[in-house]
């Protein structure tokens, strides 16, 4: 999915307005401010499968974490400049027509251990997306004391390397199996490098924040993914026991894990990717032998569970979208309510399975009447 604002774009949308549209994201609600830092990683053990020169696999990741000191640390952009320009072009806009959001993560701020090791959560984006696509969820987790690692899957993402390169995307049905295999290998490589970071090493060519050494609890690692990041989560758990709990935001499932199932907690949040419409998901569900939960949201669409639930309405005028076309994209859910669900339910899942606390997932809640439990 190269473009997210994909409803009919007005013919004039390629004309930049006098003032660029500034997109925004709602801030997190936890007790901690948020720090972040991008890291450039190179895996010398793997050749990039889509680089004919045989170059090693390169990745961009970002670390998101609680911090108590933000003075002098600027807020990070949702996408760096070249990736932001590509994002605009993907959506039928001139790069000078729109400005991507400024996140609430302060670049390079020191890591706060919050009185103990921080549980770790890894995020995998959807096809053709980026590690920024679920920043609302990521920032909320970080503000609640989690150390979150977001991963760009090179070749299947809008990513920008430190030298300004934005690699081509190669996603197609013919490449699906290879992309999924690369995604899983990416996550396992990142988990290896988190151990290096936690021990005081620096596996990247990027600067690291103060307070990082020893701040991670690598015995408590969870993972979540949006769309194609869902099967990446399940398939990673299938081959790597370091991931203790997995959450899929409207993602299907692929490969051997369908019939093997998992022996660790797993949660499905669905709209388009439903057990009722995807037989493989139902088979996978039946082979889950630990805690499991499937929830949905009334009126939800696929993009309801991403940052685009708030970005699309903001860009509707620029894109020439009618209210009906906006609803086709993000569903009938009021964006503020979708954001509330995005904040509450992933946090509740990781709180339950990494911190062993909380009751929101025990039963439907009157605080979230739009969320239904699917038996």
TrEMBL record:
Gene3D superfamilies: alpha/beta hydrolase. Transmembrane segments: none annotated. It comes from the Bacteria. Keywords: Hydrolase, Lipid degradation, Lipid metabolism. One of its GO terms (molecular function) is 1-alkyl-2-acetylglycerophosphocholine esterase activity. One of its GO terms (biological process) is lipid catabolic process. SUPFAM superfamilies: alpha/beta-Hydrolases. PANTHER family: PLATELET-ACTIVATING FACTOR ACETYLHYDROLASE. This is Platelet-activating factor acetylhydrolase isoform II. It comes from Actinocrispum wychmicini.
């Amino acid at each position: 999915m190269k473009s997210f604002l994909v409803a009919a774009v007005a013919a004039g949308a390629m004309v930049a307005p006098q003032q660029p549209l500034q997109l925004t994201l709602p801030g997190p609600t936890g007790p901690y401010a948020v720090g972040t830092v991008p890291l450039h990683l190179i895996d010398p053990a793997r050749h990039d499968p889509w680089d004919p020169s045989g170059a090693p696999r390169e990745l961009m990741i970002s670390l998101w974490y609680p911090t108590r000191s933000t003075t002098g640390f600027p807020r990070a952009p949702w996408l760096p400049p070249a990736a932001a320009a590509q994002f605009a072009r993907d959506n039928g806009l001139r790069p000078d027509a729109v400005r991507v959001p400024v996140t609430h993560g302060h670049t390079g701020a020191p890591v706060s251990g919050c009185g103990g090791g921080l549980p770790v959560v890894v995020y995998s984006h959807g096809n053709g997306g980026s590690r920024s696509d679920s920043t609302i969820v990521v920032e909320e987790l970080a503000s609640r004391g989690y150390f979150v690692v977001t991963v760009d899957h090179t070749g299947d993402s809008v990513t920008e390397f430190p030298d300004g390169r934005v690699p081509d995307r190669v996603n197609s049905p013919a490449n699906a199996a290879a992309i999924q295999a690369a995604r899983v290998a990416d996550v396992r490589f990142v988990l290896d490098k988190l151990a290096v970071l936690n021990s005081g090493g620096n596996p990247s060519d990027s600067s690291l924040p103060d307070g990082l050494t020893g701040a991670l609890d690598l015995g408590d690692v969870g993972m979540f993914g949006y769309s194609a990041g869902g099967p990446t989560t399940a398939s990673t758990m299938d081959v790597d026991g370091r991931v203790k709990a997995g959450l899929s935001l409207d993602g299907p499932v692929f490969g051997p894990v369908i019939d093997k199932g998992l022996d660790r907690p797993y949660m499905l949040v669905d709209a388009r990717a439903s057990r009722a419409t995807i037989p493989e998901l139902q088979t996978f569900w039946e082979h889950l032998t630990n805690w499991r939960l499937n929830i949905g949201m009334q009126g939800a669409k696929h993009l309801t569970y991403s940052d685009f639930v708030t970005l699309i309405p903001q860009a509707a005028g620029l894109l020439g979208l009618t209210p009906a076309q906006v609803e086709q994209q993000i569903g009938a859910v009021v964006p503020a309510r979708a954001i509330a669900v995005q904040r509450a339910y992933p946090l509740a899942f990781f709180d339950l399975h990494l911190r062993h606390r909380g009751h929101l997932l025990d039963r439907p809640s009157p605080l979230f009447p739009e969320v239904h439990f699917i038996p």
